[in-house]
Amino acid sequence: MKAAYLYSLIAVVVLGLIAYAGVEAAGLDVLFGVIIPYLAFIVFLVGFANKVLDWSKSAVPFKIPTTMGQQKSLPWIKQNKIDSPYTTGQVVIRMLLEILLFRSLFKNTRTGFSGERISYKWVIWLWLFAILFHYSFLVVVIRHLRFFAEPVPFFVNFLEQIDGMLQVLLPHMFLSGFALLAGTLLLLVRRVFLPKIVYISRPADYFPLFLITGIAVTGLMMRYLAKVDVIRIKELTMGLATLQPSIPEGGISGLFYVHLFFVSILVAYIPFSKIMHIGGIFLSPTRNTANDTRARRHVNPWNYPVKTHTYEEYEEEFRDKMKEAGIPVEKE
Amino acid sequence: MNDKNKIITGLVIFFLVALFPFWFNLIFGASDAAKGPDPVLTDKAKEAETCVADTQFMRTEHMQLLDQWRDTVVRDGQRIYVVENGNKYEASLSNTCMDCHSNKADFCDKCHNYASVTPYCWDCHTYPEETK
Asked: What are the strands, taking DSSP E only, across B58-132?
């Protein structure tokens, strides 16, 4: 499937054109500015809750932590507390490091040959791109609260000061916007050019990357190139956030609606896609279970009560018949 | 694992975070927050009727124009800005822009605050004192 990414690319371009034409040509400001964003958010919340509650019903019959260190053993053997956690506290630390620092990706290795012998090389690129992408995306999302809160919370102002610390360009360049675009493109380039990764990639892997690229590009364009009227945009977004939506007088450029439509699609798409790892990471049994199976018995809570019939009960039931037939019994 | 309580707690926290704009505005927000600010024009600005460019351009691109002015003045020594219709203006924030728009708090700051923009223009440039 060499062209798998083309489907996703075409899908994103078509979506962008739909939003642009819908607003600029057909005048569907209300549809793209109010109805679709609300619908997308509702789909996101309901879908997200539904997915997580569905997961919470799945049985975990065994403890299956994947460990990378010495488990708790005899007192004189040193335990690796993070990579082979024994207590809940150690599990929490392990989970925090996984979620905040992506340790699993950090340990990535590539198998190859050095001469005749097999070798494992530490490869950090995926971790680097992933951390760049996720943290810049987080900063971008938090910064966008300036459109959804009035007065603007102090931590948003604080973040803007740090993000714009270079004080170049006007309006100030925010590093996170460009970092997000770079991170997304780097992750995308991996999937488009590395044959082994192309082989395991499906359109559903490319689609979010193209979509987020679209979001970043339209966002950067609005800020730095094709200027849009920020005050009107905040009127629209504040209308959404205070549940009294309206399209501001004078209208907003179609580029903004493309951006908003992309974001709506992404948000609505989350519960049905790989992006659900937002919730899934917390529920990974290979990470969130303690390696204490030698000390504590793990009983699958979904085990149904098995009907047993012990020998005592059997003898109780058939004692008379057994005696009649001359079969020895334990109790007379 | 029978961690339903933990999972639901996590889900509730996630929902609180995801719904931040809704409850934040409900608790801390002003009732008319969805209405953008109306920058006040001084009498002098009203009298002049035209700015150095049309309103829509000034709404979205004024910072670009100021940036351009800075470059032409500081680097090229070119202090006169000629508008399309031939009118000439001195390229100066303090002397030209703020000559008409002398009410920084009611003109500049209103929109800047609403959009959470903190330009550093006035770190160096002076502005006419507000009349109280």
From this structure: 80-82, 88-90
Concatenate the DSSP letters of all residues of B91-106 into one string: --IIIIIHHH---TTT
Question: Is B15 in Cβ contact with A153 (below 8 Å)?
Answer: no
Instruction: Tell me what ipTM this predicted complex has.
Output: 0.89
Q: How far is B114 from chain A, CA to nearest CA, in Å?
A: 7
Q: Do A235 and B28 touch (CB under 8 A)?
A: no
Phi, psi angle pair for A108, to nearest 5°: -60, 135
Question: Touching check for A319 and chain B: CB below 8 Å?
Answer: no
- Which of A63, A58, A65, A54 is CA-nearest to residue A302? A58
Task: Establish, for the pair of chains A and B, how many residue pairs have beta carbons separated by less than 8 Å.
Answer: 101
**A contacts of B25 (beta carbons < 8 Å):** 148-150, 238, 241-242
- CB distance A69 to A296 below 8 Å: no
CA distance A70 to A78: 7
Asked whether the beta carbons of residue A234 and residue B36 sit closer than 8 angstroms, the reply is yes
Residue B131 has pLDDT above 50, yes or no: no
8 Å CB contact of A231 and B114: yes
Q: Which CATH architecture has domain A4-325?
A: Up-down Bundle (1.20)
Structure tokens at A332: 């007379």
Q: Which residue has the tokens 């992006």?
A: A275
Sequence ranges of the domains in chain A:
4-325
Domain with B62 in it: 36-132
Q: Say whether both B72 and B18 belong to one domain.
A: no
Is the Cβ pair A148, B21 closer than 8 Å? yes
A37-66 per-position pLDDT tens digit: 999 999 999 999 999 999 998 888 889 999
For chain B, the domain total comes to 2
Reduced to 3 states (helix: H, G, I; strand: E, B; else coil), residue B30 is coil
The pTM of this model reads 0.89
